[in-house]
Structures are given as C-alpha cells and as structure tokens.
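$ ./design --mode recover --in tokens.txt
reading tokens...
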C-alpha cells in the first residue's frame, strides 16, 4: 500500500486504512469489530446495546481475537451503565471512545490521562465546535445521508464547513461505501471515512439473513427515508410496515403501538402492568402524542432487536444510510477493505497525475 492512505487518523488509531466501522446497535459486536480490525480498519463496539454483564467479555473477545486494544467503545452518558463503559475503556486502554451525547470535561480529562482518544459523532457545525471545546481529539461528521438519527444537511455541505472551522482530524460519514467515496473525502481534506451500513452489509455482520435480504432488496435511495414517528427526532431508515403503521396512527393509536412493542421493555425495567395502565390513563388525559415518543425512545433497543437480532424486519425498525441502495453484495470485511483501498489509491493516483500533467507547459508536454 502506498502512502496515499496514510493520514493522521491511521497514525493516531493504529489502523492500516483510514476507514472506521461505526457502532451500530445489535450489529457492532465483538465478531464484527475483530473482523474489521484484522482487515485493517478501526471498529467500535456498540456499548449501548451490549448488556452490562456481557460488556467486559465482549471487550476481552476482541482483544483475544486481534492481539491488542486497537479498537473503540461507543456509549451514551444517559445509559444506565455509562460509568461502567468509561471505567472499562480506561482499564483496558482502548484506543478510543465514541459517543453522541457526550461526557463532561472531567470525564474527557480521565480519558485523556489514560491516552484514550475521544471521537464524538456530530451532525452540525455548532456541535462540532462544542465537541472540540470539550476536548475531542477527532470529530466524526455525519451528513443527512447517514442512517439512524441524522441531520438534514448533506455531508458535501457539512464537511467543508467543519474542516474550515476545526483543527482536529475529521472523519466523514454519511453516504460512503466504496473507494471512490474514500478518495473524495480525503481529497476534500478529511482524514478518513466512517461507514455503518456498509459494514452491517458484510458476511462478518451478525445481522440475520432475513433482515439483510431486506437491505439488499432496496434499490431506490428514496425508499430509505427520514421519519420522526419513532421519537420525534429525525431517523433515516428503510420503509417497512411497522413505520407505516406508526406514521398513520392517531396520537392515541401511536401510543398503543408504542406500549405493545414495549412488552420486553416493561419486563426489563420491572414496570408492573398496573403502573403501565396508570401511565396510559395519565397520557390520555395529558398528551398521548408526547408520551408515545418517550416510550418509543426508551423502547428503541427492543425495536432494533426485532430486526437486527430476531430477523423480523417488518416488526422493528431498519436504520440505514441511503447508500444501502447502491450495495448488492455481502463481502467479508477483509475483501471489502482491500477493494476500497485499491479503488481509493487508483483514484488518488489519477488525481495527482492530472494535477502533475496540468503543471507541464504545452511545449514541455511535446518534448516529453
């Protein structure tokens, strides 16, 4: 491999290629992270959907499979075991942590003292500036093309804005799945790309085949659309019967769907049927639409579980970047990253050759 793909990202994270595998809930497990790491990328464990009692074991599995701790852990400060995530990342000297709603300055200082890099994901310029102010070592910038919770501004607009505003390395996300995309991001000034949907659609992904078949079947980016029906925030996902029912329901009907799909959530939290009924009656009296969003937000891991673990894509949600419509195969992480690297290098070499040729005068070109 030439030096064209060596960036501050590869130097800081210790990976061969400037490609990051994002922490997709119920998808980014120890197996996928290990496969990404061995293939030369940098992977993040999805700490938000790994049970607290299993998290340390998942970290140990990646270390055993890869021979080191050159991978990351994703978590949210609002999750119940956030303190555990922080402690484990520091104890095992993981190379990095990623997060959305991030830790405070004191927690970031703990990471820095332990040489754990902080790489938050943001979807707006103001959030990038705030993250750097708090101490972020790098920024993952996700444009509106990305899957799951996402903003409304495309990566092509956000990336130049953030590159002009911050001095830390920037990782571009949202719409990337191939070497041409990596080359374009590097040419624009990013230090690498992050991919979620593309890694989920590999043979190393734990995603059930029935669910992967739904992703492969999508051939129109417009069918991977944004909805606010789940929790009031923008989600990009593949259209399916569950989302259609949720969007067409009345406020009370939406609450009923939320409570029906929350049966497992009820059991996990210990909420009694009497308490749930009391909450329902209170919601009817106050604001059914608002409570349905709260219940659905808390219930999202279960909704993801239906599709990403149990293989029932019509009964849960299918977060996806629009790039899924351009994917028609499920290669291994190794084959995927080798293909992306080769294509990116070819594109960059062609770009530099054109730039070199343009500096030669017509007379010099004739002499050559």
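writing sequence...
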């Amino acid at each position: 491999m030439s030096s064209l793909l060596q960036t501050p990202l590869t130097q800081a994270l210790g990976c061969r290629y400037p490609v990051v595998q994002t922490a997709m809930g119920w998808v980014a497990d120890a197996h996928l992270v290990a496969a990404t790491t061995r293939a030369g990328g940098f992977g993040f464990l999805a700490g938000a959907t790994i049970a607290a009692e299993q998290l340390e074991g998942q970290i140990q599995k990646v270390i055993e499979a890869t021979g080191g701790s050159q991978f990351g852990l994703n978590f949210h400060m609002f999750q119940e075991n956030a303190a555990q995530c922080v402690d484990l990342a520091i104890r095992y000297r993981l190379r990095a942590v990623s997060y959305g709603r991030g830790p405070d300055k004191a927690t970031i200082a703990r990471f820095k003292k332990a040489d754990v890099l902080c790489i938050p994901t943001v979807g707006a310029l103001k959030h990038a500036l705030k993250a750097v102010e708090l101490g972020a070592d790098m920024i993952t910038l996700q444009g509106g093309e990305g899957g799951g919770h996402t903003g409304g501004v495309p990566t092509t607009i956000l990336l130049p804005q953030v590159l002009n505003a911050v001095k830390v390395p920037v990782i571009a996300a949202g719409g990337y799945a191939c070497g041409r995309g990596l080359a374009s991001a590097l040419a624009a000034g990013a230090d690498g790309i992050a991919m979620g949907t593309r890694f989920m659609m590999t043979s190393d992904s734990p995603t059930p085949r029935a669910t992967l078949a739904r992703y492969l079947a999508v051939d129109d980016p417009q069918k991977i659309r944004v909805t606010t029906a789940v929790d009031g925030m923008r989600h990009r996902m593949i259209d399916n019967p569950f989302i259609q029912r949720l969007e067409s329901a009345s406020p009370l009907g939406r609450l009923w769907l939320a409570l029906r799909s929350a049966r497992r959530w009820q059991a996990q939290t210990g909420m009694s049927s009497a308490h749930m009924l009391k909450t329902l009656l209170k919601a009817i009296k106050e604001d059914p639409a608002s409570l349905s969003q709260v219940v659905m937000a808390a219930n999202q891991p279960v909704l993801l579980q239906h599709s990403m673990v149990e293989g029932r894509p019509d009964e849960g949600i299918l977060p996806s970047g629009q790039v899924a419509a351009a994917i028609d195969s499920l290669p291994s992480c190794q084959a995927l990253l080798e293909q992306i690297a080769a294509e990116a290098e070819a594109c960059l070499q062609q770009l530099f050759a054109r730039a070199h040729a343009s500096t030669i005068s017509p007379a010099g070109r004739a002499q050559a």
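exit 0
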